[in-house]
């Protein structure tokens, strides 16, 4: 009888356990169901802030490739990719995890990175999917394209909202490899990105929908509410370390050591300004090896628009300065600037020169130069001497050109394609296209064509966007909304 009772008890317990639903067994009680948004933040930061690229340096007449006819140098490019959408999915996941732990600061950073990535996309192509993008989980695989004007407006609104969301009461930010969770520096980065976005709309002063000048004035006029960069320590810049996988991107690169040389118009610009940054950017050309390192005559360049054979011929004759060895010998070298303090000072200078704000453009112009030279560790005496040179003195009648020229110099091997975008909207400095190697009918392209994947998977939306923007069809010379004056 006792044995029978035991058996019945076991059967009863088993029957009760069998009442549990199948889904109840699908969750591992020993495994966390929430992710740390900080882990996603680290990857996003590293991906978007590593803005070191020879492609932009070649397209912007700073460097020349002697190993082949590079399409960036000779303006023969065609299509670009939509890779930023992959990173935007990571941003989306970071936001989802932030909501689970009720950390609003990560949501603010999500808006910052959305603005950053979409700004890059629209600068590259023109109209792109925005409001209907990133909805694959809702089976929305063929998103419509938003107009560039609407994208810019949304970006600016998101950045303003992100600034207002940041607060010490809204959670700690982990995984931050740039600012270490310093929320005040994040606010500065958010508002400084707003200034970059607004100055890129310099041809849209008359656009009442966006109100470019009013927005710019609002930020500059309210530093307590909208802080911006005030020193190099504020820059959104990724440091490198002598750790495998974390070194400077061109560390141990044989190609940058042997196949890339300075473009002569850039060298001549620096020579004409007697700019000592040349000595930290470049090494002496072979013909100048017997001269002191601080002798401008020891440096020279090759023709960015010249035939490859002409450049290799000049190289064999001892002409052409290679890049300084620190770019390939030093694993740490210098941080990769994504958005720098010097850029913001030059942006303020340009806005003042255009009459957007009442600040002194010369003051910001000089602060931009100082910031750039401090980044390269020049001492104050050298900086002061440079600022006193006649050719560096600010001339109001040439104000915008001088500001953009100095901004262009400060962008060497950092800030991605900003130097090209600045030249595209202002025309400064002039890029040579008169050599025999130039493709694209001797023109500097204004954009990139849409990726082939869109033709295959989202052709209807793509064709509608092309027709709306470029009646002549998708091409690299099409003038996007951003470049049309109003």
From TrEMBL:
Pfam hit, one: SusD-like_2
Thylakoid in keyword set: no
Species of the source: Arenibacter antarcticus
Lipoprotein found in the keyword field: yes
Transmembrane feature ranges: none
Family matches, as PROSITE patterns: PROKAR_LIPOPROTEIN (PS51257)
Protein name (Swiss-Prot/TrEMBL): SusD/RagB family nutrient-binding outer membrane lipoprotein
InterPro entries: SusD-like_2, TPR-like_helical_dom_sf
Keywords: Lipoprotein
Lineage: Bacteria, Pseudomonadati, Bacteroidota, Flavobacteriia, Flavobacteriales
